[in-house]
C-alpha cells in the first residue's frame, strides 16, 4: 500500500485546497496519471500517481485544506477489478456449471462498466472527467460535442479548454420549446472563492493600500511596427519557428526605458530602495482560474524571437495550469495587455513590490494631425501606473515617452538609443 501525499508546493506555500479528483475509489491508474488537482495561493498543482495500482481509499475530499506531506489517498497493487459478493454466492451454488458462471461474470462486468459510465457522464450523456465538467458548467459548454482523449474516451479538462478555444458552445434551444419554469434558488449561486482568487484579491488591495499609486497616459502610433511585422513575418517565422508579435517589441521598449529610468525597475524595502540591475519582465495572462503573471527572465539579453518563444510557452502553460511557483516569482516590472479583450483605456494596478506596470490597449484607427494634415493612423493608448513614493512624476512621464519613441521608431531598439 502506497500513500499519495501532498508534494512540496514551493517557497512560502505551506498548504493547499483539494480540487477535483480525476479518479474514484477502485479505479485502476498507471504511473504519472493525474489523480487530483491542488489549488495553492499561486498556482494549481497536479498530483500524479508514482506507480501503477488501484485507488484503495480517498482520504481528502474536494474543498479540504491540506498541508505539505498530508495523505490524500492510498494506492494499492492490483488491476482494479472488483469482486461481486453475490456473484461468489451464485458461483458456489452452481459449482461445476461453467457456462452459467461465465454468463454471470459477464453480466456483473457489464453492470460495473455501466455504473462507471453513469458516474463519469454529465447531463448531456458525455463521459467526462470532473475538471472537464467544471469547465463546461462555467462556460456553458456542451460536452457531447467534444471529442475525448482520456481513458475510455472520457473528456479531459484539456479537451474542454481546447473546445472553448475553437468556439464550441452549448446548442441553441429550439425556438418552439417552452421555457422551463424557474427553480428555487436559480437567481443566485454562492460559490467559494478559490485560493488563487483570494490571493489575487488580497494582493491587489494591499497594493492599493500600501503604494502611492498614480497613472500617467500617452499614446503610440503603431504604423511602423505593423509595417515591419508585415514585411518580415514570413522570414521570421521560417527561421525562428514562432510568429513576430507586438509583445516582444513592448518588452524591449520597456527594458530600454527601465535602463534610462532605473527607479521604475526598483522596489522599496522598509527605508531602503533596491535598484535592480536585471530585467525580468512579468507578462499578465488571463486564465479560467484568474490572472497570473509568469516571468520572462533576462529580457535585456534576449532577442525578439527568444522573448516571443518564452511568452508563448508561459502563456500556454498558464492556460493549461502547468506553471510552477518559480515561473511567477521575481519580476522587476510587469506588462498587462488589456487590448486583447478590447480595452481602449484603463489604469493597471501595481504588482507589489514592483514600482511600475505598463498597460497596453486596443489598436484603433483614429484621425491624427500629422505635419498639418489629418491622416488615419493605428493608435494605442499606453498607461503607466507607478509608485509615487519612489518614482517622481517627471520620471514616470519620461519613461512612457521613451516607450512611445521606441514603438514608433523600432530602429531605435536596434541601435540602442
Automatic annotation (TrEMBL):
Keywords attached to this entry: Acyltransferase, Lipoyl, Transferase, Tricarboxylic acid cycle
Q: What name does the UniProt record give this protein?
A: Dihydrolipoyllysine-residue succinyltransferase component of 2-oxoglutarate dehydrogenase complex
What species is this protein from? Alkalicaulis satelles
Catalyzed reaction equations: N(6)-[(R)-dihydrolipoyl]-L-lysyl-[protein] + succinyl-CoA = N(6)-[(R)-S(8)-succinyldihydrolipoyl]-L-lysyl-[protein] + CoA
What EC number(s) does its UniProt record assign?
2.3.1.61
Location of the region described as Disordered in the Swiss-Prot/TrEMBL record: 75-192
Question: Which residue intervals are annotated with compositional bias (Basic and acidic residues) in the record?
Answer: 82-121, 142-162, 183-192
Single GO cellular component term: oxoglutarate dehydrogenase complex
Q: Which NCBIfam families match?
A: PRK05704.1, sucB
Quaternary assembly: Forms a 24-polypeptide structural core with octahedral symmetry. Part of the 2-oxoglutarate dehydrogenase (OGDH) complex composed of E1 (2-oxoglutarate dehydrogenase), E2 (dihydrolipoamide succinyltransferase) and E3 (dihydrolipoamide dehydrogenase); the complex contains multiple copies of the three enzymatic components (E1, E2 and E3).
- The lineage's top-level taxon is Bacteria
Q: Bias category Low complexity: which stretches?
A: 122-134, 168-181
Ranges of residues in domain Peripheral subunit-binding (PSBD): 127-164
Q: Could you cite one Gene Ontology molecular function of this protein?
A: dihydrolipoyllysine-residue succinyltransferase activity
Pathway(s) the chain acts in:
Amino-acid degradation; L-lysine degradation via saccharopine pathway; glutaryl-CoA from L-lysine: step 6/6
Q: Which family is this protein grouped under?
A: Belongs to the 2-oxoacid dehydrogenase family.
User: According to its UniProt entry, what is the function of this protein?
Assistant: E2 component of the 2-oxoglutarate dehydrogenase (OGDH) complex which catalyzes the second step in the conversion of 2-oxoglutarate to succinyl-CoA and CO(2).
Q: Which GO terms describe its biological process?
A: L-lysine catabolic process to acetyl-CoA via saccharopine; tricarboxylic acid cycle
| InterPro entries linked to this entry | 2-oxoA_DH_lipoyl-BS, 2-oxoacid_dehydrogenase, 2-oxoacid_DH_actylTfrase, Biotin_lipoyl, CAT-like_dom_sf, E3-bd_dom_sf, PSBD, Single_hybrid_motif
Listed cofactors: (R)-lipoate
Start and end residues of each Lipoyl-binding domain = 1-76
Q: How is the cofactor bound?
A: Binds 1 lipoyl cofactor covalently.
**Which residues constitute the signal peptide according to the record?**
none
Amino acid at each position: 500500500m502506497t500513500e499519495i501525499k501532498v508534494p512540496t508546493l514551493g517557497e512560502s506555500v505551506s498548504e493547499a485546497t483539494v480540487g477535483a479528483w480525476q479518479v474514484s475509489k477502485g479505479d485502476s491508474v498507471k504511473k504519472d496519471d493525474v489523480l487530483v488537482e491542488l489549488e495553492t495561493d499561486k498556482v494549481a498543482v497536479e498530483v500524479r500517481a508514482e506507480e501503477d495500482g488501484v485507488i484503495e481509499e480517498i482520504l481528502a475530499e474536494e474543498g479540504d485544506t491540506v498541508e505539505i506531506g498530508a495523505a490524500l489517498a492510498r494506492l494499492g497493487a492490483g488491476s482494479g477489478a472488483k469482486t461481486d459478493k453475490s456473484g461468489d454466492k451464485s458461483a458456489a451454488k452452481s459449482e461445476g456449471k461453467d457456462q452459467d458462471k461465465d454468463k454471470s461474470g459477464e453480466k456483473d462486468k457489464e453492470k460495473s462498466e455501466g455504473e462507471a459510465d453513469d458516474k463519469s457522464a454529465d447531463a448531456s450523456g458525455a463521459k467526462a472527467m470532473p475538471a472537464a465538467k467544471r469547465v463546461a458548467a462555467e462556460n456553458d459548454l456542451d460536452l457531447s460535442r467534444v471529442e475525448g482523449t482520456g481513458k475510455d474516451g472520457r473528456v479531459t479538462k484539456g479537451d474542454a479548454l481546447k473546445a472553448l478555444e475553437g468556439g464550441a458552445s452549448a446548442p441553441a434551444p429550439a425556438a418552439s420549446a417552452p421555457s422551463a419554469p424557474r427553480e428555487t434558488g436559480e437567481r443566485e449561486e454562492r460559490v467559494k472563492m478559490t485560493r488563487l482568487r483570494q490571493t489575487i484579491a488580497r494582493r491587489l488591495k494591499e497594493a492599493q493600500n500600501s503604494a502611492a499609486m498614480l497613472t500617467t497616459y500617452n499614446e503610440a502610433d503603431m504604423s511602423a511596427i505593423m509595417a515591419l511585422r508585415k514585411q518580415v513575418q514570413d522570414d521570421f517565422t521560417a527561421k525562428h519557428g514562432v510568429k513576430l508579435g507586438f509583445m516582444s517589441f513592448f518588452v524591449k521598449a520597456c527594458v530600454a526605458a527601465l535602463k534610462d529610468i532605473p527607479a521604475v525597475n526598483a522596489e522599496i524595502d522598509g527605508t531602503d530602495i533596491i535598484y535592480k540591475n536585471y530585467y525580468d519582465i512579468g507578462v499578465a495572462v488571463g486564465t479560467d482560474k484568474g490572472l497570473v503573471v509568469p516571468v520572462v527572465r533576462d529580457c535585456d539579453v534576449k532577442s525578439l524571437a527568444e522573448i516571443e518563444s518564452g511568452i508563448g510557452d508561459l502563456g500556454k502553460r498558464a492556460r493549461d495550469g502547468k506553471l510552477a511557483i518559480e515561473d511567477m516569482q521575481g519580476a522587476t516590472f510587469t506588462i498587462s495587455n488589456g487590448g486583447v479583450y478590447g480595452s481602449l483605456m484603463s489604469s493597471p494596478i501595481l504588482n507589489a513590490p514592483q514600482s511600475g506596470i505598463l498597460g497596453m490597449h486596443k489598436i484603433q484607427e483614429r484621425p491624427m494631425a500629422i505635419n498639418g494634415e489629418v491622416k488615419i493612423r493605428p493608435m494605442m493608448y499606453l498607461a503607466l501606473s507607478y509608485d509615487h513614493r519612489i518614482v517622481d512624476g517627471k520620471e514616470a512621464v519620461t519613461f512612457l515617452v521613451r516607450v512611445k519613441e521606441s514603438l514608433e521608431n523600432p530602429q531605435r531598439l536596434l541601435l540602442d538609443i
